[in-house]
Design brief:
This protein has a three-stranded antiparallel β-sheet with strand order 1-2-3. The chain has a two-stranded antiparallel sheet with strand order 4-5. About 15% of the residues lie in helices and about 25% in strands. By secondary structure, it is of the alpha+beta class. It is globular and about 30 Å long.
Length: about 80
């Protein structure tokens, strides 16, 4: 995985989105993806499958520190 300069925006939902051109899950409109997904992927060293969900342990959607994130196997595991 390449490290790139990141542009950040804060959404109304509380999630932080970053611009990551070339990311396989990036939106078609500007290559934006949820920052917590990118942080989890960088910690693990691989891209997450589409069914994976990254959960914020302390429920603070802006706290994207690796120790605050856990990767779940789908929305069914997400409480």
């Amino acid at each position: 995985m390449r490290k790139q300069p990141l542009d950040r925006v804060y959404g109304d939902s509380g999630y932080v989105r970053i611009r990551v051109p070339g990311h396989p899950s990036a939106s078609a409109f500007g290559a934006w993806i949820a920052e917590h997904v990118v942080v989890a992927e960088r910690a693990l060293g691989y891209y997450l499958p589409s069914y994976a969900v990254v959960h914020h342990i302390n429920d603070d959607r802006a706290n994207n520190q690796p120790q605050n994130l856990v990767v779940l196997q789908g929305q069914g595991e997400h409480g």
